[in-house]
Amino acid sequence: MTILGGMELHLWFIEEQAPGMALALKAMGTIHREKTEYQDLAVIETIDAGRALVLDGCIMTSDMDEFIYHEMIVHVPLCVHPSPEKVLVVGGGDGGSIREILKHDSVKQAVLSEIDGKVVEAAKKYLPNTSCRLDDPRCSIMIGDGFRHVNTHPAEYDVILCDSTDPVGPGIVLFSEEFYKGVYSSLKDDGIFVAQTESPFYYRDLLSKVSQTLKGIFPIVKTYVTVMPTYPGALWTFTLASKKYDPVTCVRRVDLKTKYYTTELHKASFALPKMVEDIVGA
Amino acid sequence: MTILGGMELHLWFIEEQAPGMALALKAMGTIHREKTEYQDLAVIETIDAGRALVLDGCIMTSDMDEFIYHEMIVHVPLCVHPSPEKVLVVGGGDGGSIREILKHDSVKQAVLSEIDGKVVEAAKKYLPNTSCRLDDPRCSIMIGDGFRHVNTHPAEYDVILCDSTDPVGPGIVLFSEEFYKGVYSSLKDDGIFVAQTESPFYYRDLLSKVSQTLKGIFPIVKTYVTVMPTYPGALWTFTLASKKYDPVTCVRRVDLKTKYYTTELHKASFALPKMVEDIVGA
Fold first, then answer.
1. Is A96 exposed, middle or buried (0-12, 13-18, 19+ CB in 10 A)?
2. Do domains B8-62 and B66-280 have the same CATH topology?
3. What separation, in Å, do the N-terminal and C-terminal C-alpha atoms of chain B show?
4. Measured between alpha carbons, how far is A191 from B10 in angstroms, rounded to an integer?
């Protein structure tokens, strides 16, 4: 014991994000931990990335870069639709997407359809920066199955976002053709859908399949990219499917307080790296 | 010993890229290791990222993503200059930048000014995918000080690239005003300079200072971004300084075999995230 005297506790959270590749974050410790009906839920306090929500051992959101993901999944479709009033988020229990959606004055109602109520509870309690707008009167939280929700709310939404976990566990159905057909039916005639579709470094086949499947349902389907330092592969994709508006040519310049998104970056994010073009088509 | 019977050797290379944040790569082992005059040099064979060159404990290049860095540092300036014939790389001993430069038919001579000859030797021997064009007759390798080189070769180059290590150790002088003045003098009247300028997540002040310093020397200075999964922060910047050609409006469409670069991505990479605009100016 003597030789360790005076040293600090070094606790490392290590996520093996791909076979043989891990992100390690030094942590002060666990703020919260529980087994929910659906998953293992933890909130950790890290030195470098701030607070992080960890589901089944995978970082879902951290203070370091959550703004990139949430701004890019939200503002791209909401600045394309001419007047988004009703928006649905499937997943997204941390509240980051809701926070960004409510920056748009046109939005009258933002509905969160999260299957695991414990994620919402933990976010409200332990992730105040991300969940800060979940109690807004324009936000409705529905704890339940997003798949069922889109299939029982026809022609209701201007924009639907799939802010899902990876395609494992409870999130897997949210990458299926059946879900996308439900999304199509739940959107109004000029509606827009965006899904997070993982990194081309590790989910090449998934990205290709989602793109192909959506092209069979929607007239306009385009992939866009961003960078997520805490996610496996860092190069991250979103796939946008639209009934009417082209996401590159129909961009409105909206006055938004952001840390990542700009109108120019919106357009630029549809210019794909060759390796992504090769997966989804140019 | 019995309880470990049958298990494989698990060797993890762990690079603490920022205080409290590390990238970990499972490795088959060390291919090569030496102390050179300038640094600790290692080549490791990883499971997920292929072969990696590690200098002073930091990954410089890996098979996984070296093509992104090298394509983006090279093809942006070489597709802006109307006819780049003579190109200088300061640093870049792994040979990746030379490989990309020699894809341009206009180039008559690519000069590599690398201070550590052992890096070039190790790359030739152990990193064949990256170093494959170092023996090309159009490539001249000068082992020596890049700072001295630019100050003794006036008005000689069409394009100069600073493919340096981080601003520590031997690389620190390559981020100085004196070096940039030497670069300016070593470029022809319509020359272009590009430097790798780290991640805005961890080198905010450096990025700001380099941009400001170059704006005091060159008439046109613009920052562009890419994603480097194995580098700290993943969101990576390059700063381009040009005597005559605007890097966004003067892009030539060159027929290149690439994995990342496209003409559209070239233009898009100058659309900066708000957090980068805030550092370097819009």
1. buried
2. no
3. 61
4. 50
Q: What is the pLDDT of residue B9?
A: 73
- Tens digits of per-residue pLDDT, A197-219? 999 999 999 999 999 999 999 99
Q: Give the CATH fold of the B66-280 domain.
A: Rossmann fold (3.40.50)
According to the model, what pLDDT value does residue A4 have?
54
If you measure CA to CA, which chain A residue comes closest to B199? A229
User: B16-20, B88-92, B169-173, B204-208: which range is least confident on average?
Assistant: B169-173
In 3D space, the residue among A218, A178, B45, A71 whose CA is nearest the CA of residue B53 turns out to be B45
Domain boundaries, chain B: 8-62, 66-280
A264/B273 Cβ within 8 A:
no
CA nearest A76: which of A213, A233, A195?
A195
Query: Among candidates B182, B89, B185, which has minimal Cα distance to B138?
Result: B89
Q: Say which of A163, A189, A205, A255 is annotated catalytic.
A: A163
Which one-letter amino acid corresponds to residue A28?
M
Which one of B233, B259, B264 has the shortest CB-CB distance to A271?
A: B264
H runs (alpha helix) in A17-135? 66-78, 96-101, 117-126, 128-131
User: Is pTM, for the whole model, over 0.90?
Assistant: yes
- Minimal CA–CA distance to B84: which of B207, B248, B245, B274? B245
Residues A215-227 as b or e (16 or more Cβ within 10 Å = b): bebbebbbbbbbb
Asked whether the predicted pLDDT for residue A102 surpasses 70, the reply is yes
Quickly name the fold that domain B8-62 has.
Answer: Spermidine Synthase; Chain: A, domain 2 (2.30.140)
- Cβ atoms of A275 and B262 within 8 Å: the answer is no
pLDDT bracket for residue A8 (50, 70, 90): low
**B contacts of A200 (beta carbons < 8 Å):** none
Q: pLDDT at residue B3 above 80?
A: no
Q: How do beta strands B109-114 and B86-91 pair? A: parallel
pLDDT tens for each residue of A12-30: 999 999 999 999 999 999 9
CB-based contact, B14 to chain A, within 8 Å: yes
- The residue that leads in pLDDT, B282 or A110, is A110
